[in-house]
Write a structure and sequence with these properties.
By secondary structure, the protein is mostly helical. The chain has one domain. About 55% of the residues lie in helices and about 0% in strands. The protein has a two-stranded antiparallel sheet. The model has no long low-confidence stretch (mean pLDDT about 95). The structure holds zinc ion (ZN) (2 copies). One zinc ion (ZN) binds near residues 111 and 230.
Length: about 300
């Protein structure tokens, strides 16, 4: 149970152990059950807006930073911006930036082979969520993220990967309780903002993110004949702010852009362009002409 709080000292082979660690998975399961509390706390337009806003902000942090930045180094930024977005992404209950990048790099190295932890060839349930709860998947392989180990603040986020989510939950409860007293017209409360802003928003965010493992390796079109089963899927791209162009991404993972055509909507790419305009990120890697030419259709 110590590992609910402290994930340090966990360096075992991520492909090593396949059993679900039910005790360690309990907080994650409890987070799903807590969504049922909506029956008691009710709903208000304000609480729904907070839930949607936190979904969008955290999805951007996951796709732009956990994925395109920490896993693939598709652009550059300052240490401060790197940290701020690592914290925002860490509030998504998808563990720390080093864990996420290590597992994702492992996925690209072994996509849809026996060593891929979340290939749909192992079944939908395994690719979608149960891989996340296996004993082996709780570990971070340091050999995969040696480039990030020099940042103690990132190592801390990884070791105490429940700290930021708990802080967000407490903050939402406190803000909701304050608004109940000082802005009664909003018809919200501490418990209501906690349930909508944290539990519901985070659970939906988690399941939307992992559709890229479970559905984007099964449903959609294949522009590139990659060795894996990755697909391009416009619906998943809308849901995940651009990650649904997954066949593009498996063919050329180094780009900060995953929608390769003007009509392939990629909100994360637009967000990164905006951040570049504001001077917050730079050196965004684009898609080379030979990649575009090879996939001309
Ligand atoms: Zn993939
Ligand atoms: Zn990737």
């Amino acid at each position: 149970m110590r590992r609910w709080i402290d994930a340090g000292g966990n360096d075992i082979d991520p492909a090593g152990r396949d059993e679900i660690d039910w005790l360690r998975a309990l907080p994650f399961i409890a987070m799903h059950v807590a969504c049922l509390a909506v029956l008691w706390v009710g709903v208000s337009p304000f609480a729904v807006c907070v839930a949607v806003l936190l979904y969008a902000m955290r999805m951007f942090a996951i796709t732009a930073f956990y994925h395109r930045y920490f896993s693939h180094k598709a652009f550059k930024t300052s240490r401060a911006v790197q940290f701020v977005f690592a914290v925002l992404a860490a509030s998504s209950v998808q563990r720390g930036p080093l864990w996420w990048a290590a597992h994702h790099r492992h996925h690209h190295a072994h996509a849809d082979t026996a060593r891929d932890l979340h290939s749909p060839r192992k079944g939908f349930w395994r690719s979608h969520v149960s891989w996340f709860l296996t004993q082996g998947a709780f570990a971070t392989n340091p050999a995969r993220i040696g480039d990030w180990l020099k940042y103690p603040e990132l190592r801390w986020l990884d070791r105490f990967d429940t700290a930021v989510p708990v802080a967000l939950a407490i903050a939402l409860y406190a803000i909701g309780a304050m608004l109940e007293t000082h802005a009664p017209a909003l018809h919200t409360s501490g418990a209501q903002l906690l349930v909508w802003g944290f539990f519901i928003s985070t659970v939906v965010l988690f399941h939307a993110t992992v559709t890229i493992n479970s559905l984007a390796h099964r449903f959609g079109s294949r522009r590139y004949a990659t060795k894996d089963d990755s697909r391009n899927n416009a619906w998943l791209a809308l849901l995940t702010l651009g990650e649904g162009w997954h066949n593009n991404h498996h063919f050329y993972p180094g780009s900060a852009r995953q929608g390769f055509r003007w009509w392939e909507i990629d909100f994360t790419w637009y967000g990164l362009r905006l951040m570049q305009g504001l001077g917050l990120v730079h050196s965004l890697k684009g898609v080379p002409d030979w990649v575009l030419a090879k996939g001309r259709r």
